[in-house]
Amino acid sequence: MNFNRFGRKAAVRTALLAGAAAITLPGAAVAQDQEVAEPDADEMALETEEQDMGNVIVVTATKREQTLQEVPVSVSVTSGEVIEQAQIRDVLDLQTVAPSLRVSQLQSSSNTTFFIRGFGNGANNFGLEPSVGVFIDGVFRSRTAGALSDLANVQRIEVLRGPQSTLFGKNASAGVISVVTREPQYELGGSVEAVYGNLNQIIVKGDLTGPIGENLAFSIDGSYNKRDGYGQIVNLDADLNDRNRWSARGQLLFEPSADLKFRLIGDYSRIDEICCTVGNIRNGPTGAAIFALGGAIDPENLFSYDTYLNREPVNEVDNYGVSLQADWNVGALTVTSITAYRELENFFDQDIDFTSADLASEVRAQDVQTFTQELRLSSDFDGPFNFLLGGYYFDESINQESELQTGSDFRGYGEFLGAFIAQDPTFSFNTIEGALGLPQNSIFNTPLLTSESYSMDNKAWSIFGQVDFEPFEGLVLTAGFNYTDDEKDFALSQVSYDPLANVNLVDAVIVGQIAGALGISPADVTPTVIQGFATGATTAPIFQQIAAVATTECNPAAPAPCNPLLGLQAFQFQPPFVDLPNSVEDGRTRDDDFSYTLRLAYDVTQDLNAYISYATGFKASSVNLSRDSRPAFGDYIPGPFGSQILAPSSPILNGGLAVPNLTTGSRFAGPEEAEVWEIGLKAQFDRMGFNLAVFDQSLEGFQDFLFTGTGFQLTNAGKQSVRGFEFDTTINPVDPLVLTFAVTHLDPLFDSFVDGPAGDLSGQRPAGIPSWNIATSATYTHEFGLSGNRLITRLDYNHTSNTQILNAIGGFGSDEAARAVARDYRREINLVNASTTFSMENGLEFGLWARNLLNDQYIGTLFPSVAQEGSISGYPSAPRTYGGVVRFRF
């Protein structure tokens, strides 16, 4: 067993990379200089060995360079050539060729979630780190918004499936997406590319590399991507779901000696788009209120791509950073250091009710600053032992300023709904304001519903390592570990402006009745007066009667003394907030974990490898950086209908921190802890190869984040598991033809999820995880004699089996009703993509391409319409796109 700085010896590495190029570009001829030195005997033996190995692909999934056949990890690889041929522009498109990966985009360009084997979260709240870690050139992108720029100058993308916490320093409990770009070269070269497609799509890309000196090389690359939207804001005559993004990257490669290398990378990308198309899937009773106000939706017509908004959404993402990687060979040891600083600025301004009525909008500005340092030492011994030992440091700060703005139609919308619910055409907020002593015309008439300020500092460090022991040729025993310590300190503050939300409807009746009984003003009913009235010998029975009436909802079918104000609770969307840290809640999480991997790998034959492994994974606590952050039950225990007067003793109440209508929920969710058993086979024969992995994976404490219609609920699922297998194969039946087939089968289960937002889901199948994912392709390369010209045609197909989209949809009453409604909405995906490219010997290429060629339509995801009980909104899939490309390589 012998490794260079990442894998086998450098000469072997060169041969393997040539093999990888051969399989990606079948039939390609490699030009050689006429004068070549005669190889010595060792080189001839090495060449013979590599010829016997056949075509191979090199990966760094274990932070050492190995062939795809050798690496004992379930990993899929997408080469730069496939990315070009399949017109894969960003990680959203990557899922069409990696069946274990699913990507979901939500209401803005930056809200994207990655799922591997059905596990994933973290897009809609910057306090949640993703369960799928994204690394670009070894640097962790802590938020998915920082990994969404167009893919430029990519050498390969590796998707590592299952927990990867042992070797990756931060939150990889579900898997890893590792993007590897090309290093600068010492020979001048590059490429330029121009694309024109339907929807007036224009893409321009280019890269240039070459020497600066004997030991110094550079590369620069950039891309520009602009396209009209495939959706339409009808009433504003504006496009929606457009593309408007660019990126630039510069690199320097400095090799002062044969044993020392430095790679400096700086990059900047910007997204400035109008996103995203949301359509009406189910038009509930609130639809009539929208139309009564003069607003509009396109009812239950998701794939018209017609949307009605009262303002164009703004999505701006600036993502930039710099990294320095140093590799130093000291005899049989290699020291690697990766130092990086990144900054992410995310801003959006959005109409969140997705109607043309002016109800509410949200503005959010977020800034993330991240410093990371990785240092590792790896060995390259000839003996039976080799090791890798490393350390990782992570320091991040997050700041967010946001607000919910009240629209000019919000008050009228509320009065219309109030009249409908109460079946009383005279329903008026003015009457309510008079009854509650509020200023006239104040309810739902403030410029803001809420304004918020959130921040979080996260410091983490880890020590990781791996030892490989090869007792005899072909058998490798591996043990790996990772100890992680993670600390988060967070602060949240919010102001809720709506006067109705600041009134508890039970306490208002109690105070009013006590004031009447004592003949004093309600303003004089202090907590001391209430306490005396509730415990007085003559007044205590009266207090009990008042409390009983105040907590009784009115029912026309069974008239009795009741509280007519309780029906207004549905209008208390954003009640007051308890800021933290405070005297009860310290605003901190402190986590540590020891993860490990045990693996046995065996070369059954020269062409067939097998492995069995057991691994654990870890993701630290996530923080609910949102207006839906609530104290934990126990820190506060609300009274009936949120009453403070009737609330039992609790630390927040006793500490004088309670505010009207305070409810409980979560400030943060505890860690995720994953484990997986996996058995794998990997084979590479003369004209075909395959990889098979069978696994049983579970995740304790999965951090579930669900939209409820007016907010988000963060909670830990008790245990979620998935069993299944992954199989992929590449077949080269004849030289011009390469066939690929990949399939993932998943059988997930909520082993325990008692306190979920939709009730007890234990024993049920998690929604959104299909049983079958299939990705297959055929690439045919026709060579025109000895001219060097080729015609490369590719057809690929991606299938996701029919599956229920959500386990429950809020806004339909009971948990059982929410689950029943969700059963009606399912998704099946059948995507066909095609491309053909004429590649000339002089480096010029012409091509045609189409994505979603057959215009398959499906629901991306759905959610209860914001503040529109009984209605459902959703995201339609993107329609067919197509175009032409011209490329020149030199």
**End-to-end C-alpha gap:** 39 Å
**Beta-strand percentage range:** over 45%
CATH superfamily of the largest domain: TonB-dependent receptor, beta-barrel domain
Q: How many structural domains?
A: 2
> Within the CATH hierarchy, at the fold level, what is the topology of the largest domain?
Maltoporin, Chain A
If classified by CATH, what would the architecture of the largest domain be?
Answer: Beta Barrel
Oligomeric description of these chains? single chain
Shape: globular
Helix content: 10-25%
Number of strands: 41
Contiguous low-pLDDT stretches (5 residues minimum) are: 1-54
Note the main sheet. 22 strands, antiparallel, barrel
Count of discrete alpha- or pi-helical segments spanning 4 or more residues: 12
What structural category do the secondary elements indicate? mainly beta
> Could you report the average pLDDT, rounded to the nearest whole number?
88
> What is the highest CATH level, the class of the largest domain?
Mainly Beta
Q: What Rg, in angstroms, do the CA atoms define?
A: 30 Å
Question: Overview of this structure, please?
Answer:
The chain is mainly beta and 890 residues long. The protein has two domains: 10-498 and 575-630 and 665-889, Maltoporin, Chain A (Beta Barrel), CATH 2.40.170.20; 505-571, no CATH class. It is 13% helix and 46% strand. The chain is built from twelve helices and 41 strands. The chain has a 22-stranded antiparallel β-barrel. A five-stranded mixed sheet has the order 3-8-9-6-7. β25 (588-603) and β26 form a beta hairpin. α8 packs antiparallel against α10 (540-550). Mean pLDDT is 88; it is low at 1-54.
